[in-house]
Specification:
Blueprint lengths: L3 E2 L12 E2 L1 H10 L1 H16 L3 H7 L1 H8 L12 H27 L2 H21 L3 H29 L5 H26 L7 H7 L2 H13 L4 H6 L3 H12 L5 H15 L4 H4 L6 H16 L2 H14 L4 H25 L5 H26 L9 H19 L2 H12 L2 H33 L2 H20 L11 H4 L15
Antiparallel strand pairs: 1-2
Helix pairs in contact: 1-7, 1-10, 2-7, 2-8, 2-10, 2-16, 3-4, 5-6, 5-7, 5-21, 6-7, 6-9, 6-10, 7-8, 7-20, 7-21, 8-9, 8-17, 8-20, 15-20, 15-21, 15-22, 16-17, 17-19, 18-19, 18-22, 20-21
GO molecular function: monosaccharide transmembrane transporter activity; symporter activity
Pfam families: Sugar_tr
Family: Belongs to the major facilitator superfamily. Sugar transporter (TC 2.A.1.1) family.
Length: 500
C-alpha cells in the first residue's frame, strides 16, 4: 500500500510525501501518551468529589461537605487535596529535564517506552494505596510518566508528519487528551455509584489501560528520521524516511536533515544555546504560550469540574454528569481543530477563541455573583443549565485553539539543535504553571468567589494581545525553513536574526 497522496508543499521531497500506513499507525500509537495525560486530568476531580475517597484520605474535607452551615465556596479548600492533584505536575516538571537527555541521546521511541513504564507503576500504587503517602507516591510516578510523554510525543508527531498535515497530526496528542478526560468523566460517573467504598480504586486503576497502550505503542512504532540521523544512524534514518514518506524522492529532505544534524552536533550545551539571541523568539513564544494556556482557567475547570459543580449547588450525580458533558464537547471541538489548524492557521484560531472564552467567563461571573451568596447554596435549575452551557462554550473554544496549538507551535518552531531542550522548557513551564493553578485554585475559589472567573478573563485579554502582535503564522512551513520564512520576516522578531 503506497498511501494517499496530497497537494504539493514547499521544500524538498515533502512535495511527493504520502499519508502512509506507517505514519498513521505511528502517530496513533504515539498519541496515546495524551490519552493517559487526559485520563488523569479527568479522573482527579471526580475521585476527589467521591465520599468514600474523602472519608479515607481527607476526613476533614468530608466533614465540611456534610455540614449545612458552611461557605459554599470553601468546603473543598484543602491543601491536601490540592497536593494530591498538583504533585503530579511537580514531578512532571522535574522529569522533563531527564526526558530531554533521553530524547536526544536515546531517541524518541525509547523515551516513550520509559514514559509507559512510569505510567504503569504509578497506576498500581494509586489503585492499591492504603494511606496518603502511597497515594502521593503513585501520583509522583504518574507525573514522571507525563513529564517524559509530554516531552517526546509532540516532538515525535511533528517530526514524522508531512508538512501539509503537520498541524492535524500533532493535534492527535491533544485529541487523545480530550478523549482521556471524557473517558475519565464517564468512568467516575459509573464508579461513584459502586457500593462498598472501592469505586475510586477502580477509577484510578483503569488508568492502566492507556498506560499499557502507550507502552505497547512504543514497542511497535519506528523512531523518527530526525532522531536516527541526529544519533548518527544515517542509512537507517534514510530508510525510515523513505518508508514514512511513501516515495523514493526523499533526497532533498534527507540532506536537510543531515545538515540540521551536523549543526545540532556542534551544540554541546543545548540549554545554554537556547539563550543565544537568535533563539530568543522561539523561547519567548514557547514559554508565554504555556503560561497563557494555563491562565485561561481551563485546567482549573477540568481538574475540579465535579467539585466546581458541587460548589455551585449541583448534586453529586448531576455534577459528574455535567463534567461528562463538558468532556464530550472537549473531544468534538478538538476534532474541529484537526481540520482547521492547517487551513485557517494558528493565529486565527487563537484570536477567535480568545473572544469567545472572554465573553463566556464574564457572563458566568455575573450570573454567579448576582444569584449565588455564601448562605445560598443552590442556583435555580434554569441558571444552573445556563452555567453548564457557558462552561461548554468556554471549553469548546479552548479545545480548538489554545489546547492543541500550545503544544503544536513550540514543537515546530525550534531548530533541531535546540528542539529537545526547547521542548523540555516548554513542558517544564506548562507543568510549573499547572502546578501553581492546581495548588491554588480551590483557595482562590474560596477567597475570590465568583471573581475567580474575572481573574482568568483578565489573562485572556492579555494573551489575545500577545497573539495579535507577537505570534507569527507557522502553518504549511517546513520546520527546517522557519528561520528564513518566519523569523526573518516578522516585524519584531527579525531584529534577533541579525546576530549569531
Amino acid at each position: 500500500m503506497s498511501g494517499i497522496g496530497f497537494g504539493p508543499a514547499v521544500g524538498g521531497g515533502d512535495s511527493e510525501a504520502k499519508i502512509t500506513p506507517t505514519i498513521i499507525i505511528s502517530c496513533l500509537m504515539a498519541a496515546t501518551g495524551g490519552l493517559m495525560y487526559g485520563y488523569d486530568i479527568g479522573i482527579t476531580g471526580g475521585v476527589t468529589s467521591m465520599a468514600d475517597f474523602l472519608k479515607k484520605f481527607f476526613p476533614g474535607v468530608y466533614q465540611r461537605t456534610q455540614e449545612e452551615v458552611n461557605s459554599t465556596y470553601c468546603k473543598y479548600d484543602s491543601h491536601g487535596i490540592q497536593l494530591f492533584t498538583s504533585s503530579l505536575y511537580l514531578a512532571g516538571l522535574t522529569a522533563t529535564f531527564f526526558a530531554s537527555y533521553t530524547t536526544r541521546r536515546l531517541g524518541r521511541r525509547l523515551t516513550m517506552l520509559i514514559a509507559g513504564v512510569f505510567f504503569i507503576a504509578g497506576t498500581v500504587f494509586n489503585a492499591a494505596a492504603q494511606d496518603l503517602a502511597i497515594l502521593i507516591f503513585g501520583r509522583i510516578l504518574l507525573g514522571c510518566g507525563i513529564g517524559f510523554a509530554n516531552q517526546v510525543v509532540p516532538m515525535f508527531l511533528t517530526e514524522i508528519a508531512p508538512t501539509r498535515i503537520r498541524g492535524g497530526l500533532n493535534i492527535l496528542f491533544q485529541l487523545n487528551i480530550t478523549i482521556g478526560i471524557l473517558s475519565a468523566n464517564y468512568v467516575n460517573n459509573g464508579t461513584s455509584k459502586i457500593k462498598g467504598g472501592w469505586g475510586w480504586r477502580l477509577s484510578l486503576g483503569l488508568a492502566g489501560i492507556p498506560a499499557c497502550l502507550l507502552t505497547l505503542g512504543a514497542l511497535l512504532v519506528v523512531d523518527t528520521p530526525n532522531s536516527l540521523i541526529e544519533r548518527g544512524c544515517f542509512e537507517e534514518g534514510k530508510a525510515i524516511l523513505r518508508k514514512i514518506r511513501g516515495t523514493n524522492n526523499i533526497e532533498p529532505e534527507f540532506l536537510e536533515l543531515v545538515e540540521a544534524s551536523r549543526i545540532a552536533e556542534e551544540v554541546k550545551h543545548p540549554f545554554r544555546n537556547l539563550l543565544k539571541r537568535r533563539n530568543r523568539p522561539q523561547l519567548v513564544i514557547a514559554i508565554f504560550l504555556q503560561i497563557f494556556q494555563q491562565c485561561t482557567g481551563i485546567n482549573a475547570i477540568m481538574f475540579y469540574a465535579p467539585v466546581l459543580f458541587n460548589t455551585l449547588g449541583f448534586k453529586t450525580d448531576a455534577s459528574l454528569f455535567s463534567a461528562a458533558i463538558i468532556g464530550a464537547v472537549n473531544v468534538l471541538s478538538t476534532i474541529v481543530s484537526i481540520y482547521l489548524a492547517d487551513k485557517v492557521g494558528r493565529r486565527a484560531l487563537l484570536t477567535e477563541a480568545g473572544i469567545q472564552m472572554f465573553l463566556s467567563q464574564i457572563v458566568i461571573a455575573n450570573i454567579i455573583g448576582i444569584k449565588m451568596k455564601d448562605d445560598s447554596v443552590d442556583l435555580s435549575k434554569s441558571l444552573a443549565i445556563i452555567v453548564v452551557i457557558l462552561v461548554c462554550t468556554f471549553v469548546s473554544s479552548f479545545a480548538w485553539s489554545w489546547g492543541p496549538l500550545c503544544w503544536l507551535i513550540p514543537s515546530e518552531i525550534f531548530p533541531l539543535e535546540t528542539r529537545s531542550a526547547g521542548q523540555s522548557v516548554t513542558v517544564c513551564v506548562n507543568f510549573l504553571i499547572t502546578f501553581v493553578i492546581a495548588q491554588a485554585f480551590l483557595s482562590l475559589l474560596c477567597h475570590l468567589k465568583y471573581g475567580i472567573f474575572l481573574f482568568f478573563s483578565g489573562w485572556i485579554l492579555i494573551m489575545s494581545a500577545f497573539v495579535l502582535f507577537l505570534l507569527p503564522e507557522t502553518k504549511n512551513i517546513r520546520i527546517e525553513e522557519m528561520t528564513e520564512r518566519v523569523w526573518k520576516q516578522h516585524w519584531f522578531w527579525k531584529r534577533f536574526m541579525d546576530y549569531d
